[in-house]
């Protein structure tokens, strides 16, 4: 068996953005922040790469591309255009175009539609793996399936599920190495399934395969360690940003006064703003909640002048309005 290049998996990002949020922050917000940040990084790489290519610096552009973080949205690319007219297993196949990236929504649909097959293959022994690949090769030889095992393996390693990581690495390497075998031959991976298993009928070949599994597991363990450190640092930074934003956001006076002691909230005229506020007509309460000057003017024009002046002066003395 030739050696396999696993270096690109060092740049893997965990597949599910929703697993990276801080427990004390809004989950939906963090998912959006993670994706926006990732998209911005990709845009910066695209812009810089375009500049380098325009300047004729192809080698520098290639080096920049090699540093692009991999995630489910960009880890897979179609190697060839292929249309399947009929599939014996009745599975749905989509026509794709050369060079087209898979998107998160498509990957999620693939997992949902084929989870029972992916789970079955994950727990299959060697012979069952062969029969499943022959029966469901149209699904298990999809690039999505390859990515599923790689990304799920990283996810499980980060969560400390060592037993599952071992199974995922082993089964994922069957799929990955068939892809590796097919690539230089310019053949669809599904066509190479029988040849792959014939090649590994001998003990020496099985040992070579296991060496590839161990090698990949080492990369997963190393990447998971780095990713956890990155996630911890990112969560801490997001928590700090949220704290700073919360501190910088002014609390409305009416809301704040209920959080203070009577002594702390006493106005310049010695009146308690809570007592004054609760004694106001509802329409005036709305004025002070919103701080809307135009609304206050409208209320003043509609209310008897003596009543308004009395209410308004009490509000000034209580600190609800600055005269």
C-alpha end-to-end distance: 85 Å
Spatial shape:
elongated
Helix content: 55-70%
Biggest sheet details? none
Structural class: mainly alpha
Low-confidence stretches: 14-33, 76-100
Radius of gyration: 31 Å
**Count of helical stretches:** 14
CATH homologous superfamily of the largest domain, by name?
Cdc37, Hsp90 binding domain
Question: Which key features would you list for this structure?
Answer:
single chain; mainly alpha; Methane Monooxygenase Hydroxylase, Chain G, domain 1; elongated
Word description of this protein:
The chain has 323 residues and is an all-alpha fold. The protein contains 14 helices and no strands. It has helices at residues 27-54, 58-66, 104-122, 126-140, 143-158, 162-182, 193-199, 203-248, 253-257, 262-265, 273-278, 282-290, 293-302, 305-318.
